[in-house]
Amino acid sequence: MKKPYVYLVGAGPGQEDLITVKGLKCIEKAEVILYDRLANESLLKHKRPEAEVIDVGKAPDHHAYTQEEINQLLVTKAKEGKIVTRLKGGDPFVFGRGGEEALTLYEADIPFEIVPGITSAIAVPAYGGIPVTHRGISTSFHVITGHEDPTKAEASVNYEALAKLEGTLIFLMGVSHLKEITEKLMAYGKDKNTPAALIHRGTTARQKTVTGTLGTIVDIVDANKIKPPSIIIIGEVVKLRQSLNWVEKLPLQGKRILVTRTRQQASDLSRKLKELGGEVIEFPTIQIQAPEDFADIDEKLRNLKKFQHIIFTSVNGVKAFFERLKVIKTDIRSIGTARIHAIGSVTKKALEDKGILVDIIPEVFTAEGVLEAVKEIIQSGDRVLLPRADIARQALIDGLKEMGAEVEVMDIYKTTIPTCRRQDLVEILRNSVDYITFTSSSTARNFMEILTPENHQLIENSKIAVIGPITKKTAMELGVKVDIEAEEYTIDGLVKSIKGEKDLEGF
To answer: Residue 289's beta-bridge partner residues?
Structure first.
């Protein structure tokens, strides 16, 4: 049996990117992952496909597992000879009960490692524009559990001492006891005018902050219906939020955006939207697969020198083309003197990354744009190769043939609908989505097929953003109202158009 090992990993304060490099590596290598409700579920996409995942989340009103059961589960899974990663919100040792889990492993003679995480006690105030210390204002900060009821007979938190401190007070998990906490501090002499703030779901796209004073914050929280998970900050540093609030000013802050690209390609679009404050939900409606038969493809690849032009229409085409060249042990020298053309700057970059310089890139990134760009270059009788998807448009082929070119199509990859559950998509849409993005006709067509007509009303309140006119035309043919069309037919162009639309709101 393999030697067991357990990693107790701090997942950070909520945002997916705020996990440490070491913590991410522990997810990637784990055979079993136990995670709680404060750890971002998006982190699980970094796991091994075969890894066992167990939700041991504990909510204030519901415990899927007791702490003792979690401790025993760690031992049980480790004794199976597995690498176990225990993923905990924030830092394992800051009110995370990581110490209890580590002691259980020690007593069971199971080797373990502590991987610290960014604690919400510091990160969440920072995302709310509140530094926990600031020269001339606060030279210390104090982190206190807010989960303990201050009114109980033998409270372990010394509110009399806390009331006399000049530093910043940070209460974790204290929303349900906010009234008691504030009253206790004021009863022991803390000025009722001391600034106070609550930050809900800090560092995430759903972050919401309210501010007031020790005497008013309870009513403000009630009026704004602030719920757990939230952090309480009390001290003069709260005033700095007026100048330092940065996250909640991001253009897409609080907006939920559905990305329908392939799982492999979604990351670039998702990252750019997240940088603008958006909450991204990835639901791939398309996947790229290899053709079932490569005989015709390999024949063309072995005779590339006969072509005067090769036109690449997508990054996927570039990737599939060069991967197949490698499989049949043929290198780029076989391209010979063929002129290389690309639809779009991203496709151009993909070719340049392979050491291929592009001769022509159209001003408009469509088949029609390519035809306009090459009409003076491609001569009658020229042989043109089109590596492309199996369901690509006919327009480019027809246009080239009208020029007198001899066109050979190479369906180098195919697009299919990935295995998914319609109910998962329905649940996502029922929870309200502000924007739905389509980056190709296939993503739009497959999305509507997965959704089915009886659920079309679920997208009526979402704004539809498309990458260009061809995708827009497809969406409209499917009965979908398009609200945003990228001016530049690229991922960057799509993001800019969504951001620009948001900037115009309220004018």
So the answer is: 414
Known catalytic residues? 36, 58, 173
How long, in residues, is the chain? 507
d(CA 142, CA 163): 12
Summarize the confidence of residues 434-442 as an average pLDDT: 93
Tokens of 230: 């939230």
Same domain, 99 and 190: no
Largest CA distance in the chain: 94
Q: Which two tokens stand for residue 284?
A: 């791939």
- Which one-letter DSSP state was computed for residue 360? B
- Say if CB 364 and CB 372 are below 8 A apart: yes
Question: Is 38 found in the same domain as 109?
Answer: yes
Domain of residue 390 covers 300-413
Q: What is the DSSP string of 459-491?
A: GTTSEEEESSHHHHHHHHHTTPPP-EE-SSSSH
Q: Is 114 helix (H, G, I), strand (E, B) or coil?
A: strand
pLDDT in tens, 262-287: 777 778 899 999 999 999 999 999 88
- Are 129 and 245 contained in the same domain? yes
Sheet containing 406-416: give its strands across.
287-289, 406-416, 383-389, 309-312, 339-342
Q: Which of 255, 284, 282 is nearest to 432 (CA)?
A: 255
297-334 pLDDT, tens digit each:
999 999 899 999 999 988 889 999 999 999 999 888 88
User: 241 and 153, same structural domain?
Assistant: yes
Count how many domains the chain has: 4
What tokens does 97 get?
């009960």
pTM of the model: 0.78
Strand partners, 90: 12
pLDDT digits (tens, 9 = 90+) for 380-423: 999 999 998 887 778 888 888 989 999 999 999 888 888 878 89
- For residues 447 and 381, what is the distance between their CA atoms, to the nearest angstrom? 41
Same domain, 403 and 465: no
Neighbours of 369 (CB within 10 A): 17
Supply the CATH number for residue 164's domain: 3.30.950.10
Beta-ladder partners of 213: 195
**Domain with 364 in it: what CATH number?**
3.40.50.10090
